[in-house]
Amino acid sequence: MRQICDRLALIVLTIAPVSCSPILPRVEYTTHSGPKAFPKIYGVVLDDTFTPEDSSAIRSALSNWNIALNENIELTTDSNGPKWDNIWYVQNMSEGTCVLTLACQSDKGRALGFVDMLGGHKLYLIPSRVRSPSELTFVTMHEIGHLFGLEHNPNTLMDLYFNRRLYSCVDPLTAWAVARTNNLDYGAMNWCTP
Questions:
Q1: Does 162 fall in a domain?
Q2: Cβ neighbours of residue 38 under 8 Å, at least 6 residues apart?
Q3: Which letter does DSSP use for residue 149 in this model?
Q4: Is residue 149 part of a domain?
Q5: Does some domain include residue 194?
Q6: Which of 32-41, 42-51, 58-67 shows the lowest per-residue confidence on average (mean pLDDT)?
Q7: For residue 99, is pLDDT > 80?
Q8: Which long-range contacts (CB under 8 A, 24 or more apart) does 190-193 make?
Q9: What CATH number is given to the structural domain containing 79?
Q10: pTM score, two decimals?
Q11: Model confidence over 49-68: pLDDT tens digits?
């Protein structure tokens, strides 16, 4: 059994029907049984300087991760819901501010986003460096992997180099790495084949 999702749908539960948008290609995720325990809730606070379009793209990345996490962990921007077990901040970096930050540059080219540290709590995005909302979704998905403690890994969502196909969803190796790094049941996670 598979669940189909587009990356702009705002989906929180893995068993909910999925509406698909013509803007992005559809992705199929596996649908494994979720864990027996209640999920940990990670609150995600978005910088209010993001445009509505950028905020929607970021929420789309959270939705994709929620499908993969399959209620092991729930990522939410809703501060009125259950108490948060962890909190992440997503900051908007302007090109001007970014130039002053060493992390915005690398020997491999200009960064599209970065985190304060592996397993950290702050994600910085540079929307002016991506070409479309879908690319911002993909970059956000990659950077969330770093917040979960993952390093770069070739030919996966965590590849060092931006790749629309690899960054389009949470692949099996990335799901396994998140499960291992965060003490989650890999068999209760979902993944796609990009």
A1: yes
A2: none
A3: T
A4: yes
A5: no
A6: 32-41
A7: no
A8: 190/3, 190/14, 190/29, 190/30, 190/31, 190/32, 190/67, 190/68, 190/69, 190/70, 191/29, 191/30, 191/68, 192/27, 192/28, 192/29, 192/30, 192/68, 192/168, 193/28
A9: 3.40.390.10
A10: 0.83
A11: 999 999 999 999 999 999 99
